[in-house]
Design goal:
The complex is a heterodimer of chains A (293) and B (453).
Chain A (H helix, E strand, L loop, with lengths): L1 H35 L2 E2 L7 E2 L3 H8 L1 H32 L5 H16 L2 H12 L5 H7 L12 H29 L3 H9 L4 H29 L3 H6 L11 H11 L3 H29 L4
Antiparallel strand pairs in A: 1-2
Chain B lengths: L6 H7 L8 H17 L18 E9 L1 H17 L3 E9 L3 H13 L6 E5 H9 L7 H4 L2 H8 L3 H6 L1 E2 L2 E2 L2 E7 L1 E5 H7 L10 H11 L9 E4 L4 H9 L18 H15 L12 H9 L3 E6 L3 H7 L5 E4 L9 E10 L6 H11 L2 H10 L3 E2 L2 H4 L2 H4 L6 H5 L4 E3 L6 H16 L5 H23 L1
Parallel strand pairs in B: 1-2, 1-3, 8-9, 11-13
Antiparallel strand pairs in B: 3-11, 4-5, 6-11, 6-12, 7-9, 7-10
Helix pairs in contact in B: 3-15, 3-16, 4-20, 20-21
The chains are: A mainly alpha (293), B alpha/beta (453).
């Protein structure tokens, strides 16, 4: 009994710092955001209770629908591209290649993950410049009319997605590669003996055995993209108009530019609920397609 | 009030020889004071008015700028510390990105209960800081001789911008306006001469067309639009219009003159091809392109000169903004104020005297940071060294108007630039964008008015 009790104490001590961090930096602000969402708060004056007014305003705000639509599109496209391209790259760098080539390729694909988004965005902004950028410079050789990669509503969000995928695909590649290297070689040998072609082995063996890693990548990428801020802020500042503005950017605008912290909190609450629901839905749905060996 | 009504009396008595017994010293002080009052002259409020040199305290300055500004501030603080070696000054220096972001940082810091002792703020945030009582009136200090010495050297137009209900809240130390910069080498190559100081939008258009040449990647643009709120403002002002009405409480975006100005800027990019797409080009990148000759003219205040100096680029000069309906440009000043939360108001004032001193402004003038607030420094060789028409900077105060900066400046700027972005992307007609912007701005100003009451 005594031993069990002392083990419990040790356990609590181990999780204590993490739990404390969670309470202070996650749960505390979450509760504060919920409380503030029922107030009018301009940061400098004390919060004034206004009931459900902020939530009523959500329904009447036409910009909110636009930023939610942008965020959903950004998240869906980024998840699909980052996870699938990560899988393709992982399979590619897992092939039997000369050592230096293999490591050079892995490093090259992973390198953007290590670069700060703001630095990367500055370079991309230069590349994407409509009149003076490198991308349009080369397209000019093919007589392509200059494209406003970051300044046209048709292209701005796609350009941000491209930069996000470039920046983060190295991470999904790395986790997928780790998953690939955990698949026992004997299974592939057995499949070859049974006459399975490489493409069949990929879809019937590799992909199913990678599904736990793919679920992890999908969940992490989805949560990150639903909260995307820095790449959009640095590349397009949400423009033109609201064409590439995300929900988190809109929350920032409301909270720290318009000083409507109450309304910003109400939007943040809806986003938190949405992310929670989507994550639960994914975990529930994963029972149908994720295979744990 | 922590500031004693006669601080000089308090401070000087400790300097008296110790051989005087305490009572005698008090008596002597009292007699001295009576004599001075009798002579109709209170003691000069300068160094002897200041807190004693051995004062032990800490001061926090909320500050902005770039590496050059930091250098100037460090030197001012070092001079201050020579007088007050026991005062620790923490310069909370924020490399500036945009005024709204800087203001947000200040507001958030004050809200978190960590109000600084001194605040360095620009016109864009002045009304907000004053209306939210983040700074105190400085009359008790500026009425002193030292205060008068500073203020008499500053153009009244600059002081007016920081004065509310007859009370001065910030001591201006520097300011900026918008002028047209032109690349003298490009002008020479193109065989065009400097435009007249009273040139018009039409003259500007003719000149920009002559300076635009080439196609595709080798194209040289006649003009680079300074695409930020302050940079665009001279286009409004020179057409006798503005974003807000003069009372700073109502939108003015439905003014046909405003539409005309927006159409003019839009045409520079999309009809005449005289300017690169500005929404995609950082304001600082425009100056780089200007220095490399890819852009023949652009708009800017005095601040681009520090970049030009650093890159040994000297083939440039300035000319006033072209006029349409009015000869007018914009200006914005930066000044230092004292927080009501500080326990060291008198000491804070002493630090402000250093920060806004001639030495600081001369140093800034030499580095090309901004236009000095003090006229004597603006007339100094350091400031007038370059460009050829440098005197035009200070002279512009005679026809410049302050940037419109209501307490909700950040939101006004955000609304304008978001809708303007759609115009510059050539996706929404100027008429439609301004109509939508006007509606949004009207609602924002009404909300601001309601909250102020």
């Amino acid at each position: 009994m005594k031993k069990a009790s002392s083990e419990n104490i040790v356990g609590y001590l181990f999780v204590g710092p993490s739990l404390l961090g969670y309470l202070v930096f996650v749960l505390g602000p979450l509760i504060a955001a919920v409380a503030l969402s029922f107030t009018h708060y301009d940061v400098l004056s004390a919060p004034r209770p206004i009931g459900l007014s902020n939530y009523a305003r959500l329904l009447a705000d036409p910009r909110l629908a636009i930023v939610y639509r942008n965020t959903a599109f950004f998240a869906a496209a980024s998840v699909v591209l980052t996870v699938s391209l990560g899988l393709v790259l992982a399979v590619a760098v897992n092939q039997r290649l000369p050592g230096p080539v293999k490591y050079a390729l892995r490093t090259a694909y992973f390198f953007p993950v290590l670069v700060g988004m703001i630095y990367a965005a500055m370079v991309w902004k230069f590349l994407f410049n409509r009149d003076l950028g490198v991308v349009n410079y080369y397209l000019n050789f093919f007589h392509v009319t200059p494209i406003g990669w970051l300044t046209s509503s048709n292209w701005a969000l796609w350009s941000v997605i491209l930069v996000y995928v470039w920046k983060n695909v190295g991470f999904t590649m790395l986790t997928t590669l780790a998953g690939l290297q955990n698949i026992p070689e004997e299974l592939f040998e057995a499949a070859r003996i049974d006459g399975a072609k490489p493409i069949t082995a990929f879809f019937r063996l590799t992909v199913p055995l990678l599904t736990p890693v793919l679920l992890f990548n999908v969940t992490i990428t989805m949560i990150n993209t639903l909260q995307e801020f820095d790449s959009i802020m640095a590349l397009t500042n949400g423009g033109p108009g609201d064409a590439s503005r995300s929900v988190v950017m809109y929350i920032y605008d409301q909270a720290f530019r318009s000083f409507n912290l109450g309304y910003a909190s109400a939007i943040a609450v809806t986003l938190s609920v949405l992310i929670g629901l989507l994550t639960l839905l994914q975990l529930w749905g994963s029972r149908r397609w994720v295979h744990y060996t | 009030m922590s500031y004693p009504p006669f601080p000089d009396f308090v401070s000087t008595r400790s300097d008296l020889p110790r051989r005087f017994p305490s009572f005698s010293r008090r008596l002597l002080g009292l007699v001295g004071l009576i004599l001075l009052i009798a002579l109709g002259r209170l003691p000069p409020a300068s160094a002897e008015n200041a807190p004693p040199a051995n004062t032990k305290a800490e001061l926090v300055l909320f500050d902005f700028g770039d590496a050059n500004d930091k250098q100037i501030r460090d030197a001012a603080i070092a001079r201050f510390n020579k007088r007050y070696p026991n005062v620790k000054v923490t310069d909370q220096f924020t490399p500036i990105t945009s005024w709204p972001d800087y203001i947000n940082k200040l507001v958030t810091q004050v809200a978190s209960g960590k109000a600084p002792d001194l605040i360095h703020i620009a016109t864009e945030g002045a009304l907000l800081t004053i209306s939210k009582k983040l700074v105190i009136p400085l009359d008790e200090f500026t009425n002193s001789d030292a205060g008068k010495e500073i203020l008499t050297d500053i153009d009244p137009t600059l002081l007016k911008g920081f004065t509310v209900d007859g009370k001065l809240y910030l001591v201006p130390e520097a300011w900026n306006n918008m002028m047209i910069y032109y690349n003298t080498k490009v002008f020479k190559e193109a065989g065009v001469s400097r435009p007249a100081d009273d040139w018009t939008w039409d003259d500007f258009l003719v000149l920009a067309k002559r300076l635009t040449s080439g196609e595709g990647p080798s194209k040289r643009f006649g003009f680079g639009i300074p695409y930020f709120n302050f940079g665009l403002t001279p286009f409004w002002y020179s057409n006798a219009t503005s974003v807000l009405k003069d009372n700073l409480k109502e939108s003015n975006l439905s003014d046909p003159k405003f539409l005309e100005a927006v159409k003019f800027i839009h045409a520079l990019v999309h009809e005449n091809g005289l300017s690169p797409d500005p929404a995609n080009t950082d304001p600082n990148a425009v100056f780089q392109l200007f220095a490399t000759g890819k852009i023949a003219m652009t708009g800017g205040g005095h601040w681009p000169m520090q970049f030009f100096k650093a890159n040994q680029f000297s083939d440039y000069d300035v000319v006033p903004w072209p006029k349409k309906a009015a000869q007018k440009t914009v200006f914005g000043a930066a000044g230092f104020g004292i927080s009501p939360k500080t326990k060291q108001k008198a000491l804070g004032w002493e630090l402000i005297k250093e920060l806004a001193s001639s030495e600081s402004e001369r140093q800034a003038a030499g580095l090309g940071v901004a236009i000095p607030a003090r006229r004597t420094v603006a007339e100094s060789p350091e400031f007038l060294a370059q460009p050829e028409h440098a005197p035009l900077f200070y002279k512009s105060l005679s026809y410049a108007a302050p940037v419109q900066a209501p307490a909700n400046y950040a939101e006004v700027e955000r609304i304008l630039m978001r809708h303007l972005g759609q115009v510059m992307a050539d996706e929404v007609k100027p008429e439609d964008a301004l109509k939508a912007a006007d509606q949004e701005l009207t609602a924002a100003m009404k909300q601001q008015e309601a909250e102020a009451q």
